[in-house]
Amino acid sequence: MPIASDQTFPFPLLIGDIGGTNARFALLDDAKSEPRQLPPVKTADFETIEAALKSILGLNAARPRSAILALAGPIQGDEVPLTNADWVIRPKDMLASLGLSDVLLINDFEAQALAVAAPADEDLVQIGGGEILPHSSRVVLGPGTGLGVAGMVFAQGIWIPVPGEGGHVDIGPSTERDFQIWPFLEPIEGRMAREQILCGRGIMNLYRAVCAADGIDPALKDQAEVTTAALSGADAAAVETLSLFSTYLGRVAGDMALIFMARGGVFLGGGITQKILPALMKPEFRAAFEDKAPHSALMRTIATFAVVHPMAALAGLAAFARRPGTFGVATEGRRWRS
Length: 338
Prior knowledge:
single chain, Nucleotidyltransferase, domain 5, Hexokinase, domain 1, 7-stranded mixed β-sheet, 6-stranded mixed β-sheet, Glucokinase, kinase, ATPase_NBD, glucokinase activity, ATP-binding
């Protein structure tokens, strides 16, 4: 399979992180320059990515010759719909309308994985114990508009990101309290996927289920109200919601650590992680992460971190664009050139 490290990309180069709600872009003038941030956009404010880019690129003198974009969703075919937004990315249209000569699309958490190959200490907050083993497999996952998951494997001298749709794997109840709450959770097409709980709308799904299990009316109207009330201790149902959210995220993070044998660390990205970091620093997350009998002793040695870099995906894309030979990124079916 062709990998992107076989070839370089022409500069100036546009990098972009396109999620379900927000799209963030930056320009790299050359392989030695720092990314120049462009104004972020809401995907709902523009009908197409071309319209959004024409709006923000009009403010810059340098016009990009190529683009590497990270998208929330699987990359298949010449039309790539986003999982949690209305945009459909059509690279051939981008080549024609934006004057680009080269476009590469990758998964958004693939970009997050690129960012943790060599993260700066100031971009991480460790949660609990454990240590990073160099050149060992890593996992990135994070709750935001959805739940993104990716692996990072070191082989033959390069880092290889492994994209996936781990947010859509089933999740089930384990404790007596779980069994009380589960009947009130809203499933998706009859099944309970991790993303139904571990994302922005998942917080509300969980909060309403907690209230229903206790026979009370939900007083809080949105995710921001729930997390604010939980962190301040102002609402008992919200406090339990965030505690359970941290527990379930710990379980899923532990599952992924076992799947990848992630002795290089597990890294929590996504917009929600930074907002609820005080809750994640409490015992629930790490206790659930380590509770993987018969491998609890192993789990205690694996480090977990919150990624606090404000633009981690763009940092990962920039690292790849500057040094493509350091990474093994598959390009087959994901790269378009004029």
